[in-house]
């Protein structure tokens, strides 16, 4: 499986009534101001499960590049976020396979984003998220 590596230039995160989200900002050949949004619903129902929507929602800079269930996992460490994508994720998001986002030391907002990602691990849609920071 191919690997793509990017350096984060910004990160944002938040909690909404219906979801937790983290947005990873980077520069790619596709888009100078590229972004990968990772969204985790706080509640899912039988219909969401039936439609394949009881999983992480991933979207790039435009809804033309989005899908549910496109990531095998989201692994968070002190200095990177690794997102191995399955075939569906590669096709929908126009990535090659495993996407690694390097986190520069002192990136503003990273600690908040880690807290949000840790919160995702407690939700049904966030079962693919692993935070490997003590």
What does this structure look like?
By secondary structure, the protein is α+β, with helices and mostly antiparallel strands. The protein has one domain (2-131). Helices cover 17% and strands 38% of the residues. It is built from 3 helices and 10 strands; from the N terminus they run ββββαββββαβαβ. Strands 1-9-8-7-10 form a 5-stranded mixed β-sheet. A hairpin with a 6-residue loop joins strand 5 and strand 6. The mean pLDDT is 95.
Q: What's the story with the biggest beta sheet? A: 5 strands, mixed
Structural class: alpha+beta
Integer average pLDDT: 95
Number of domains: 1
Shape field = globular
Number of helices: 3
Please provide the ordered H/E string of secondary-structure elements.
EEEEHEEEEHEHE
Spatial sequence of strands, sheet with the most strands: 1-9-8-7-10
Number of strands: 10
Quaternary structure state of the chains depicted? single chain
Helix proportion: 10-25%
Task: State the distance separating the first and last CA atoms.
Answer: 29 Å
Radius of gyration: 14 Å
Quick overview:
This protein is an alpha+beta fold. Helices cover 17% and strands 38% of the residues.
Keywords:
134 residues; alpha+beta; five-stranded mixed sheet; five-stranded antiparallel sheet; 17% helix; globular
Set out the fold topology.
Blueprint: E1 2-7, E2 10-15, E3 19-26, E4 34-41, H1 46-50, E5 57-59, E6 66-68, E7 74-76, E8 80-84, H2 87-93, E9 97-102, H3 110-120, E10 129-131
Parallel strand pairs: 1-9, 7-10
Antiparallel strand pairs: 2-3, 3-4, 4-5, 5-6, 7-8, 8-9
């Amino acid at each position: 499986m191919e690997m793509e590596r990017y350096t984060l230039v910004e990160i944002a995160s938040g909690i909404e009534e219906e979801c937790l989200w983290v947005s990873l900002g980077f520069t790619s050949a596709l888009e100078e101001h590229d972004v990968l949004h990772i969204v985790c619903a706080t509640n899912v129902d039988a219909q969401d499960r039936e439609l394949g929507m009881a999983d992480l929602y991933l979207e790039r800079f435009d809804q033309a590049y989005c899908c549910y269930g496109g990531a095998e996992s989201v692994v968070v460490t002190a200095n990177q976020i690794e997102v191995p994508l399955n075939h569906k994720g590669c096709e929908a998001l126009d990535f090659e396979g495993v996407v690694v986002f390097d986190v520069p030391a002192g990136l503003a907002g990273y600690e908040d984003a880690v807290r949000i990602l840790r919160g995702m691990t407690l939700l049904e849609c966030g079962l693919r998220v692993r935070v490997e920071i003590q």
